[in-house]
Structure formats: structure tokens, C-alpha cells
Amino acid sequence: MTSVPDPSQKHQRREHGLMLALVSPALLVILALIVLPVGWLAWQSIYHDGFTLENYRRVFTEDIYWRSFALTFEISLVVTGIALLLGYPVAYLANSVPKGWSILILSLVVLPFWTSVLVRAYAWLALLQRTGVINQLLRYLEVTSEPLALVHNTFGTVVATVHILLPFMVLPLYATMQKIPSDLMQAGASLGASPSLTFVRVFLPLSLPGVLAGCTMVFVLCLGFYITPELLGGGRTVMVSMLVSRNVELYNQFGAASAVAVVLLLSVLAIFFVVSRFISLDRILGQK
Amino acid sequence: MTRLSPARIALYVISALVLIYLILPVLIIAPISFSSARFLTFPPPSFSLRWYQQYFSNAAWMQATRVTLTVALLTVLIATPLGVSAAYAISQSKLRIMRLIHMMLLLPLVVPIIITAVGIFFLYAKIGLVATLPGLVLANVMLGLPYVIISVLAGLQSFDPAQEMVARSLGMNRLRSFFAVTLPQIKSSVVAGGIFAFISAMDETIVALFISGGQYQPLTKRMFTALRDEIDPTIAAISTLMTAASFVLVLLASARQKKGG
């Protein structure tokens, strides 16, 4: 009954040790290259020759910071809304057609996903600029006489950003819709409901977890967008990420850059935390 | 299902337009890259390979291409074994802390990349890794790990660990049973994970903008700088090649994944 070492317990301890040893190299890389640097950022934002909240005071009171945060949230909201409006029908169609067609539709959705963001920024510049494809086409068709300003402004940023983030909306939507049993729709129909009523009362509510997952992913990714607004925004659409990089590269304001980065990160984590109370994080992240 | 109500027709039309919006920008670059015009003109006046020649004969672009390929290859060689061993441990271990570790390993997907980039820049500045090849590779290993882990975990889900137990009860040691029994069955998802890590390293831009420099600048960094100044069709040629490479790799990866495992 006393302390004779239990062989199975010893075995289990060895097993635990082995598993931790196997996971530790990857964990070490993550700790060294993301946890430590981001922790350092946070430290730098409150410590400079002594403890200070000056950086945060600036972020929360100075006009340029406020405006940038407000603009970033505004753009993210607009982009998320548009992505939902465009993505829902596509996911719905992919879910309601025979398998071969749905594979084709999903492949078309995922195809641009695997194209470099930089390449797509270039493509949108080629399409939207003053001498770009669309403006030339419009003039050729004599719809317009003057080239339209489609890029180097917020419009161009939004068009290209939605393009990049749309797959993150469609995939979770499709995954959720696929799990909705089609019997339910048939039941609705057999009880005399019109297709549109069954859609609104049965299908739509059941697809809401997918809507939430897709919107979260698109919104959060958009908050941190850098390349697209930098190349297509024309310098006037200063999103938070550009604020971070300018403070580092142009002004050498490391403390301010860190404070902005921390506020951005906390916003993202807060969103994930709130959403994770409703749906599991795996469901949001599993799509990437 | 196939009854064509007005709502159904609207659904088809809207979806078709959205799909065109998704695909068109990806396809538009290739014709531009084969155009002879110095500036963007549509339709292209005539066919030419001059932008490809421009790219292949430019020492700076070639150096950047070598850096990109070297970094991507080294990233795969390091990230794949690390990711496989981590995924194996996560799927096998019953330790409660493993869930937390799993979440931490997916952090690169959660933290906005601009924050990661600036953080790594500060770290590298302290330890002298800015503008070095090891610095670039290390950062890309970190960013590629989640892709390997997600892919291999998916593969391990359909694998029955009892098989490995059988091999071990027949006298194989742990390592041998892993290589003889487990690995062959999850090989496809390991290869797929490696390919995703390669693409991720090839396309990575933002971290490279901050930490690369001198002779160790990948293609994406040079492209970004070039795009800020002017729209040179040489970039269309590079973009077309990069896109083609990505697609071939993705096709390989998904063919692998479909084979099971």
C-alpha cells in the first residue's frame, strides 16, 4: 500500500516527457519569434528610461492616431459587410448544386487565395489606375470621357481588400451550410412554407455560426492590413498598420509604434475572445 | 432544386459576377506580361517576351529570386520536421497543457502580421540578425509552422494510433514504428504541409520589408519597392511566374491530400 513506484505511472511520466520533448522545438521557435518580440513591444510601449504611459496618452488623444483607428475600424466594417453580401450567395450556390459544380465554385474561390497579395495589388493597380484596363475600356465604349479615379483612394483599397478577404468569408459559410440537413428544408416545404420563407426562418438562422466565423476572420484580418492600403490607398488612407510602420521607418518613434501595435493587438484578441464565447476558435481559424 | 425561380436566376447571376471579380485580377496579369507596350494598354498592341527578358537579364531581380528560393527551401526543410513532431505530440498526448501549446503554435495566424514584423525587427536589431539569411529563414519557419501543423493534424485524425501500438508490441521501438507505420500513412499531409510552408515563405512580404536588406532581399520586397514607384511590366512577368508556381504547388498539395492521409 505504501510507496512502491507504480510502473504504469512511471511509464506515463516518460510518455509525457517524450511528448513535451517532441513539441518543444516548434514551441521554442514560436516563443522566440512571436511571443518574445511581441512581449518586448508591449514592454517598450510603457518603458523608456522609466515607466511611462505617454505613448498611450498620445495614441488616445492625438488626432492623427484617433482618426487612423476610426478609419481602420470603419474600413474593416465596410469590407466585412461587402464580403458578407458577396460571399453568402456564392457559398449558398456552392452548397445547393451537385458536387462537381460545388468543387468548381470552391476552386475558383480558393484560387486567388493562393496568389501573392502583392501580385494581386499589382493586378488591381493595372485594372483600376487612370490608364488602366477598366478606364481604357470605359473610354473605348464611350461611357466616360475622362478617366475615373478608381485607385490611390479609399475606393481602390476597399475593392482590393474585399478581393483578398472574400475566401475567408466563403469557406466558413460553406462549411456551416453543408452541415444544415436538407431534410429541414424539405420539412419546411412539406408544411407549406414558400422557399423564401423556409430560407428566412430555417436556413438563415442555422447558417449564422458561419456568418459569425466569416465576419470575425475578415474583420480581424482587415484591421491589420498593410500592403493593400499602402499600395492602393494613395497615402491618404492611413490605416493603423501604416501608422505602426511609419513610426518605425520614418520617424524612429519606437515607443509610439509599439503602443499603436499593442492597442491593435488587444483589439484583435478582444474580438477573438468575445466571439469564442459563441463559437469555437477552431471554427474560425480552421479555415486559413 | 433545378426549378428556375427568379430568385434562383438572381442567385446564379450574382454568384457568377462575384466569381468573375475573384478570378479576373488573377488572370489579367498574364496578358499584360506578354504585351510589348511600355505602359499598360488594353488590348495589348502585340505579343512580346521583352518583360521576361528584362527580368531574367537583371542581376538584382535574379539575386532576389535566388534569395526567395533559398529561403523558401530552407524554411520547408526546417519547418516540416518541427511541425510534424509537434503535430504528432499534440495528437498523441493527453497532457492538459497540450491544448494551450496547440493554441500558441497557431499564434502566427492570430497576431496581425505587421505587429509580428515590427516585433521581430526590434529583436533582430538587438541580436544582429537584420539583413541576414538565417534571420529571414527563421522568421519564415515561424510563419510556416501553423500550416504544417494544421495539415499534419488533419492527416493524423484519420490515422488509428493503435496501429503503432501493434508495431511496438511486436518489438519495434518508438522511433522505428513511427517511421515504418505512421509516417507512410500521413505522408501526403506532410508533403502538403511542406508545400504550404513553401508558398507561405515565397509570398511573405511584410516581415521581409522590415528585416531584409542588402543582398538578402527576397523578390517580394523588391517588388513592393518597385510598385511604390511605378508600374513596370517586368513585375507582371514576375507576378505571372510566381502565380504559376503557386498554382502548380497548390495542385500538387491538394492532389496529395486527396490521396488520403
UniProtKB/TrEMBL annotation, chain B:
Q: Does the keyword Nucleotidyltransferase apply?
A: no
Transmembrane intervals: 9-34, 67-91, 103-125, 137-156, 177-199, 235-255
Q: Which GO terms describe its cellular component?
A: plasma membrane
Primary location recorded for the protein, binned into one broad class:
membrane
Q: Which InterPro entries match?
A: MetI-like, MetI-like_sf
Report the Gene3D superfamilies cross-referenced here: MetI-like (1.10.3720.10)
**What CDD domains would the database entry show?**
TM_PBP2
Q: What is the membrane topology here? A: Multi-pass membrane protein
All residue ranges annotated as the ABC transmembrane type-1 domain in the record: 65-253
Name assigned to this protein: ABC transporter permease
